[in-house]
Protein 1
Amino acid sequence: MNYRLPVLLALLALAPGHTLAARLLPTPEDRYRHWLAQPEATDAASYRAYLRGHGLDGVIPAPALLRSARDWRRCGVSEFAVAPREQWPHILPTLRVVRRLQADGLLDAGLMASGYRDAALNRCAGGSSRSRHVSNNALDFDLPASPDNIRRLCGYWRRQGPALKLGLGFYTQTRIHLDTSGFRTWGSDHTWRTSLCTGKPGDES
């Protein structure tokens, strides 16, 4: 009867809300720990040490901070990635913004969905050719579904965005993009016209 085990596990994985399936399937933390043992994760500890030296390690939990893209499975790449060392400074101002947004209750840093992406993954994920993800300056987050979240986030962008050079993009009402490459906003078609905020036109994400 052992030959039935893989089939049983597959069925459990498809069962919505099944507690046994949830226990059997690896969590993101489990996958992160496994990834840390791979050769591609060599720079992960050095990257965190670099952030720690700037007082920013832990702003976003490591398994979330190093998440490459929502579409990592479809694109056939690792779920986690470390940017090239020369790009590490680019993320510092964006992490400072994330820390402020979380302190103000506008963001849950643990819900980060995408950080650094190389050019090939960025194309596969549907990113702009000028995406700040490729330069390690951008982070994507999920938001709880609430019009109030959008209103408060847009208000923050209007008030604080110019000084922070804050770029705020909306893929949907619950999926956003943040970077610190210039004060601008955009929506689903990568233009300011479809942004859920009103204000200064911007460019692509």
Protein 2
Amino acid sequence: MGKMAQAPNPAFRLLDDADDQGGARVRRVGGLTFWAETLAFRTVAAREFRDVTDQVAGVVRRSGVSQGWVGVFSKHTTAAVVLNENEPLLLQDMGAMLERLSAAAGIYQHNDLSRRVGEMEPDECANGHAHCQHLLLSSSQEIPIADGRMDLGRWQRIFLLELDRSRERQLVVQVFGA
């Protein structure tokens, strides 16, 4: 079947071109702003809970959005984004739970690098446990924005959760609203 030409959507009008504001990717449509920034981190070790709440709040402030949503997305299959309380003993408990559910010392087919297919990094390591742990978590979280601030609960913080080893990591933070 041939491709059908699609008429432009009259409800979607770009009011200005995308601009690059200090590394942010910005679009404004009608009264809405779409603002995205990529944040870079160097993690230290497996099961590191890196509190990134303040960095995400900074993106929300720079966007100028007063009502809307912010999404935080990990670009990695062995690093998750989670919301929880930043209490050191709880973080230890959660890390221990992940280790019990999918132990680093366990047996994983993925860890047999001689049998793996597909592209691998030069420093590829045995990390089947980290992929399995990530399966239980999420790559992203969405947080409402009210009055220009994230509307988190009293104890909620945003974490980049490293599941593998010390690595360079990236989070895409995307703000949408008015």
